[in-house]
């Protein structure tokens, strides 16, 4: 699924739509967000976490690597792998313990194996001052979710 995102609000709307299309139980889902610096990965993550009911700030996980949110629909883990150099480091950040929640991952290319267990891939691109998004299903349930949004 491809969508043109003319402004920040359109990016936030797409995030809210993805959240709304998810089942009640978020545990075990993984969404990989890729695209260049400043393209809107954190904007998407912030809107997704707010759609789930979080009202406070959504700090960047660049230094903490993981920012956890405990919300009525379950846990959401906002993960940023920008500073991660290899797959080994995933173990140190306790990746396997994040499977009780929804994992929203920035810079997933830092750990290629994540693609095998992910459900959705969001690729953001620059279109002049605007952006475009390609949302791909990586699992059966991920593909079904995209059909629901369309
Ligand atoms: N669809 C869009 N069109 C134009 N600007 C956008 C769009 N989505 C987000 N932005 C802007 O681009 C910047 C994205 O920053 P950020 O979300 O931190 O990017 P990233 O996490 O990918 O580095 C923000 O200034 C935001 O306002
Ligand atoms: Mg970011």
Range of helix content: 25-40%
Give the terminus-to-terminus CA distance.
8 Å
Identify the CATH class: Alpha Beta
Question: Total number of β-strand segments?
Answer: 7
Biggest sheet overview: 7 strands, mixed
What's the CATH topology label? Rossmann fold
Q: Note the total helix count.
A: 5
Order of helices and strands: EHEHEEHEHEEH
The radius of gyration over CA amounts to 14 Å
Q: What CATH architecture do you see?
A: 3-Layer(aba) Sandwich
Tell me the name of the CATH homologous superfamily. Answer: P-loop containing nucleotide triphosphate hydrolases
Count the domains: 1
- Overall 3D form: globular
Mean pLDDT: 94
List low-confidence stretches.
none
Strand order of the largest sheet: 1-7-6-2-5-4-3
Overview of the structural elements:
With 150 residues, the protein is of the alpha/beta class. The protein has one domain (2-149): 3-Layer(aba) Sandwich (Rossmann fold). Helix content is 29%, strand content 29%. The chain has five helices and seven strands, in the order E-H-E-H-E-E-H-E-H-E-E-H. The protein has helices spanning 8-21, 41-51, 88-92, 114-117, 140-149, and strands spanning 2-5, 30-34, 66-71, 74-80, 101-106, 120-127, 130-137. Strands 1-7-6-2-5-4-3 form a seven-stranded mixed beta sheet. Strand 3 (66-71) and strand 4 (74-80) form a beta hairpin. Helix 1 packs across helix 2 (41-51). The mean pLDDT is 94. The structure holds adenosine-5'-diphosphate (ADP) and magnesium ion. The site of magnesium ion has 3 residues, from helix 2.
